[in-house]
Each structure stands twice: as structure tokens, then as C-alpha cells.
UniProtKB/TrEMBL annotation:
The lineage of its organism: Eukaryota, Metazoa, Chordata, Craniata, Vertebrata. ppGpp hydrolyzing enzyme involved in starvation response. This is Guanosine-3',5'-bis(diphosphate) 3'-pyrophosphohydrolase MESH1. Its cofactor is Mn(2+). Residues 32-127 form the HD domain. GO terms for molecular function: guanosine-3',5'-bis(diphosphate) 3'-diphosphatase activity; metal ion binding.
Length: 179
């Protein structure tokens, strides 16, 4: 039986290899892997989460959406729970961008508690990232639109983790967006 630290290293290594050629949408083209690591770190450091499956799902949360990874592969390597959590936070690639955004709002309240935690940390990371540095090519209007949509998703995730929700609420308040 592997220790939690060994499992987490396996997981972060898997994610790093999968995202190895990807970059964030910022001017510095930050390596993409900083995002999943940061999402897991928000959960542990700010959310007080020690549930290893949640931390693993955070590390892997964009592998299926953004790389050649399949849910079956995650199930074989990391087990059913982690694979199911990643599935819960993965957008359906067959849908249009608009439909995907609508689905996230609709699905949020129905997600499992563990998946809601990953979603909250993902939104918190991305909003902080946008505040740190506007993604390449985004107008102020598009940034505001992103905050408004994120608030609609986060509304459906409330009652999950007071610390993370508090930080999100503050970010929305700074933009004059009602949660
Ligand atoms: P998004 O608008 O969803 O792009 C944001 C996503 O990119 C984040 O959720 C995050 O997802 C990822 N990301 C990567 N780098 C960063 C970063 N530095 N900071 C924050 N997030 C980052 O997707 P699209 O670019 O495909 O745009 C689609 C939508 O945008 C459409 O619905 C359209 O309506 C709207 N749009 C609006 C425009 C406007 O001017 N108002 C213009 C064009 C499109 P992850 O967690 O997966 O990494
Ligand atoms: Zn993400």
C-alpha cells in the first residue's frame, strides 16, 4: 500500500507529463501545470482539505478536457473515485462554448461534495489568475463577462467550503458582481 505522499507524487507526475506542452493564456505563457498544482494547493492550504482523492482529482482535473487522457485511463491508474470526480468536472467537448458555460451553471448544484470542492478551487485559481494578468487578447468587457458567469457557477456550489467561498465572494465584490 502506497503512502499518501507517494500517491500524490505519482498523480502530479502524471498531470505534468500530460500537460507538458501546454501553456496558460497569459502573456508569459506560464507552463499549464502550475494551474492544476495551484488548484490542489488552494484546497489543501486554504480549504483545509486532506481528502487525497479530492487532491488527486484537482491535480488531474483538466487532463481529460485538455489532453489525450481518457476517463478509462484515469480509472485504470488512479481508481474509480478519482476518475469519477474528474469526469464530474470535465466539460463535454461536443458542445459549443456557450452551451458548455450554460451546462456548468446548471450542473454545479448537482455535483458531488468532492467535485464541488474541486470546482470552487478551480474558479478561485482562474479568477485570481485573471486579476494577476489579463489573458492575452481579452478586453475589459470579456473579463467582466467571465466574472459574471463564474459567479453563476459558484452560486450553485455554495455551502461546500466557507473559506474558499469567502475568498470568491471577496473577488466578486471587488468587481461589483453579486453572488
Ligand atoms: P474561456 O473564456 O472559458 O477561457 C477561460 C478559461 O481558460 C479558464 O476557465 C481557464 O480554464 C483557462 N485559462 C487559461 N489560462 C488562463 C489564465 N491566465 N487566466 C484565467 N484562465 C485561464 O474560453 P474561451 O477562451 O474558449 O472563450 C469562450 C467564451 O468566451 C465564449 O462563451 C464567448 O461567449 C466568450 N467570449 C467573449 C468575448 C468578449 O469579448 N466578450 C470574446 C470571445 C469570446 P481551465 O481551468 O480549464 O484552465
Ligand atoms: Zn482548471
Amino acid at each position: 500500500m502506497s503512502s499518501d505522499s507517494v500517491i500524490l507524487l505519482e498523480t502530479v507526475n502524471f498531470a505534468a507529463e500530460k500537460h507538458r506542452n501546454q501553456r496558460r493564456k497569459d502573456a508569459e505563457q506560464t507552463p499549464y501545470i502550475t494551474h492544476p498544482i495551484g488548484v490542489a494547493r488552494i484546497l489543501s492550504h486554504e480549504g483545509g482539505i486532506t481528502d487525497i482523492e479530492v487532491l488527486q482529482a484537482a491535480l488531474l482535473h483538466d487532463t481529460v478536457e485538455d489532453t489525450d487522457t481518457s476517463i478509462g485511463e484515469l480509472q485504470a491508474v488512479f481508481g474509480q473515485t478519482v476518475a469519477r470526480l474528474v469526469q464530474e468536472v470535465t466539460d463535454d467537448k461536443a458542445l459549443s462554448k456557450e452551451e458548455t458555460k450554460r451546462q456548468q451553471v446548471e450542473y454545479a448544484p448537482h455535483a458531488s461534495h468532492q467535485a464541488k470542492l474541486v470546482k470552487l478551487a478551480d474558479k478561485l485559481y482562474n479568477l485570481r489568475d485573471i486579476n494577476r494578468c489579463t489573458p492575452t487578447g481579452w478586453t475589459a468587457g470579456r473579463v467582466q463577462e467571465y466574472f459574471v458567469w463564474s459567479a453563476q457557477v459558484v452560486r450553485g456550489l455554495r455551502g461546500t467550503n466557507p473559506a474558499l467561498e469567502g475568498h470568491l465572494e471577496e473577488l466578486f465584490k471587488q468587481r461589483g458582481v453579486e453572488l
